[in-house]
Backbone:
């Protein structure tokens, strides 16, 4: 697999700081624009207070902090069938092992790179990767994207 397709490593040195900022934002009842600005400076992404509101109802702090710190997936228009197959395999393994951040990263990469509206609809654990990729490529070749 090409280097650009590898899952980016999170800077562990920044992780504790991001966790503290996320906790502060989640606990805030008022204006937390300064904390959001500090978080954006570290992550290179814009964030809103709503991203972190009551996160404990749907994830844990470590997972959310890693997701917040992780790089955005690239858009790669020249993915090969073998690369898509490998990515689908990774997503399926992550779904079984509950590695949500990595699965979401690769689903977003496919979403950005292929003209499909909802990549997750194609990925079923019961189907083999070859079948899934063939469905995706067939749908991609007949998609019309309106800008």
Residues:
């Amino acid at each position: 697999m090409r280097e650009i397709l590898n899952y980016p490593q999170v800077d562990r040195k920044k992780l504790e700081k991001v966790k503290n900022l996320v906790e502060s934002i989640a606990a805030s009842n008022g204006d937390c624009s300064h904390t959001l600005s500090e978080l954006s400076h570290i992550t290179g992404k814009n964030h809103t207070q709503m991203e972190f509101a009551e996160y404990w109802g749907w994830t844990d702090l470590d997972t959310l902090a890693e997701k917040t710190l992780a790089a955005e997936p690239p858009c790669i228009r020249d993915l090969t069938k073998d690369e898509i197959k490998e990515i689908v395999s990774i997503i399926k393994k992550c779904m079984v092992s509950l590695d949500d951040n990595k699965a979401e990263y690769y689903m977003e990469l496919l979403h950005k790179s292929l003209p499909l509206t909802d990549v997750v609809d194609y990925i079923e654990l019961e189907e083999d990767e070859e079948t899934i990729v063939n469905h995706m490529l067939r749908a991609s070749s007949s998609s019309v994207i309106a800008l």
Q: What stands out?
A: Residues 43 and 68 are 7 Å apart (CA to CA).
